[in-house]
Amino acid sequence: MKPLLSRVESKKVDKAAAMLKVLAHPKRLAIVDLLGKEDKMTVTEIYRTLDLPQAIASQHLITLKDRGILSSFKVGTKIYYSLSIPKLLDVIDSLEDCCDSM
């Protein structure tokens, strides 16, 4: 019997599952949603907007950046973060729509 997924499709599914695991944390999802509404934000703007301790916000930002979900750049002493994968907002919108119907 032939497997349902080819190796290439299986790798895509594995990558998608890994991405969803990273986004499964409510604070990380909130950061992605926030950066989808703003072009760029500093760590300070993010933790203040989401009412998070600075250290916690920084840990989540590092995780999201390490997974390629966010990008960052430095201007002077400030580090700005932005969303690298805007299509993730479609995922968030779909999940929100799904949850509304439950």
Automatic annotation (TrEMBL):
Q: Which GO terms describe its molecular function?
A: DNA binding; DNA-binding transcription factor activity
Annotated HTH arsR-type domain residues: 8-102
The superkingdom of the source organism is: Bacteria
Q: Which Pfam families match?
A: HTH_20 (PF12840)
Keywords recorded for this protein, A-Z: DNA-binding, Transcription, Transcription regulation
Q: Which SUPFAM superfamilies match?
A: Winged helix' DNA-binding domain
InterPro entries named in the record: ArsR-like_HTH (IPR011991), HTH_ArsR_DNA-bd_dom (IPR001845), Metal_resp_trans_reg (IPR051011), WH-like_DNA-bd_sf (IPR036388), WH_DNA-bd_sf (IPR036390)
Q: Which CDD domains match?
A: HTH_ARSR
NCBIfam families, sorted: HTH_metalloreg
Q: What is this protein called?
A: DNA-binding transcriptional regulator, ArsR family
